[in-house]
Amino acid sequence: MNAPSDPTPAVPDLDPVAAARWRQHPRTESPWLCEEVAARMAQRLDWMRQVPQDWVHWAPLWGGLRGHRALSERYPQAREWLAGEQAEAARRVLAPPPDGWRGWTQRLVGRAEPGPAPVPDGGQGLADLVWANLALHLHPQPMALLNRWRELLRVGGFVMFSGLGPDTLHELRAVHARMDWCPPAHPLTDMHDWGDMLVEAGFAEPVVDMERLTLTYPSAERLLADLRAWGRNLHRERPRGLRGKGYRQAWLDAVERYLPRQPDGSLAVTVEVIYGHAFKPEPRVKLAASSQVPLQDMRAMLRQPRPRS
């Protein structure tokens, strides 16, 4: 697999090949952390007055299948689209079972077929909401991804996303540094930078906030199992070969010895979750001797009401 060729700036020390492989990693259910963050992100929809008629779930197998079903219930008359990694696989998982067609048919009156549909090739301007849970920090070129989300939106639609912030696993990073090991994960982007990138990508009214979650574990073994379930080390400088049982035991011993503990003796790590949303504004044309305007933007501008004289 070749590294992405998009010219937009890349995230330092994030291996694009490893990131692509992880995003395409076969799965039939979503990691529990993704489902938890999806539920927390859904609470922010209470702030939104707009009721989507169409919404896109980006990378739904990763972003949360339970989260998807919750949004389906929240917007029962909206058409659902799937995009990003493993969209077709997610459609097969989300398709209603044969004994559930009656309820789905009642909910999906007027649709060509029940269940979510993959976004058509080159689909633009088809949704009022792009829902992207814990996706942005896994892409080596986030500006390209933000631009794609903007393309999927109609004018006035909004993107709602989440990602992991730089305080994530800072306790484990300290253990790795103490042992002179490669960092356990690639560097993560600060929420203020996400806000700047939203504006640069052409979004309006960006709102970005964060919260820190403390995860506790009875043992290093349990922590390791969780880390493998909801992530991989995508750092460019990570060791390339298998390191064997000796390294595994050394890692477990170091975590048991140096990772912070709660008063009850459990091991603790931090997860910083960044949430954001922003709207797609009316397109504007930069005046020049010769200007090129995408057809989709021209149609949107022609629909604008004339200003009163």
Highlighted features:
309 residues, alpha/beta, seven-stranded mixed beta sheet, 12 helices, 37% helix, disordered N terminus
What is the compact description of this entry?
The protein has 309 residues and is α/β, with parallel strands linked by helices. The chain has twelve helices and seven strands. It is 37% helix and 18% strand.
Total of DSSP H or I helical runs spanning 4+ residues: 12
- Extract low-pLDDT stretches: 1-7, 99-112, 305-309
Q: How many strands? A: 7
Biggest sheet strand line-up? 3-2-1-4-5-7-6
Q: What is the rounded Rg?
A: 21 Å
> Whole-Å distance between the termini?
58 Å
The percent range for helix content is 25-40%
What is the overall silhouette? globular
Query: Which class do the helix and strand fractions yield?
Result: alpha/beta
Please characterize this protein's 3D structure:
37% of the residues lie in helices and 18% in strands. By secondary structure, the protein is of the alpha/beta class. A seven-stranded mixed sheet has the order 3-2-1-4-5-7-6, sandwiched between helices. Strand 4, helix 7 and strand 5 (153-164) form a beta-alpha-beta unit. The relative contact order is 0.15. The model is unreliable at 1-7, 99-112 and 305-309 (pLDDT under 50).
Give the secondary structure arrangement, pairings included.
Blueprint: H1 16-23, H2 32-43, E1 54-58, H3 60-63, H4 65-74, E2 79-83, H5 87-94, H6 101-107, E3 117-118, E4 127-132, H7 142-152, E5 153-164, H8 170-178, H9 191-200, E6 204-217, H10 220-230, H11 244-258, E7 267-279, H12 295-302
Parallel strand pairs: 1-2, 1-4, 2-3, 4-5
Antiparallel strand pairs: 5-7, 6-7
Helix pairs in contact: 2-4
